[in-house]
Write a structure and sequence with these properties.
Elements lengths: L5 H15 L6 H23 L13 H18 L4 H15 L8 H11 L1
C-alpha cells in the first residue's frame, strides 16, 4: 500500500464528490459530523484504555475505522474552507519544534510515563 499525503487525501475526497456529482454538506454540518466521530473515538478509547468496560454493541468497533472517519470529516472541512491541511500541519510542527523544544523534555509528568512505556 502506498503512502498517502494529506494533499492527495484532500484531492481524493474532492474527486469522489465530483464523481457522485454532489456537493459537500455545509461546513457547519461537517463540524457536527466531526464532533460525532470524535465522540465515537472517545467511546472506544474510554473502554480500551480507560476504566469503562465494553458494552456488547461496542465490542466490534474498530479504532482505525473511527479515526479514519474523523480524518475524512476533517479533510472535508479543510476542502470547503480552502485549507491545505498538509501545509498547515507543517507550519504547526515547525512552531511546536521551536516553541516546545525544551518544554517537554523538562516535563517530569510525561517523562515518567515515557519511561514506563519503554520498560
Amino acid at each position: 500500500m502506498e503512502d498517502l499525503s494529506l494533499k492527495k487525501a484532500q484531492q481524493m475526497i474532492n474527486d469522489w464528490f465530483n464523481e457522485l456529482n454532489v456537493g459537500y454538506f455545509s461546513p457547519l454540518t461537517n463540524l457536527g459530523q466531526l464532533t460525532e466521530e470524535v465522540g465515537e473515538v472517545a467511546r472506544i478509547m474510554i473502554r480500551e484504555y480507560g476504566d469503562q468496560s465494553f458494552k456488547e454493541s461496542d465490542k466490534d468497533k474498530d479504532l482505525g475505522a473511527e479515526l479514519s472517519d474523523v480524518l475524512f470529516s476533517l479533510l472535508c472541512i479543510a476542502n470547503q474552507t480552502n485549507v491545505d491541511l498538509g501545509e498547515a500541519f507543517l507550519r504547526k510542527m515547525d512552531k511546536r519544534k521551536n516553541r516546545d523544544e525544551k518544554r517537554h523534555q523538562n516535563n517530569d509528568k510525561i517523562n515518567k510515563k515515557h519511561k514506563k512505556c519503554l520498560e
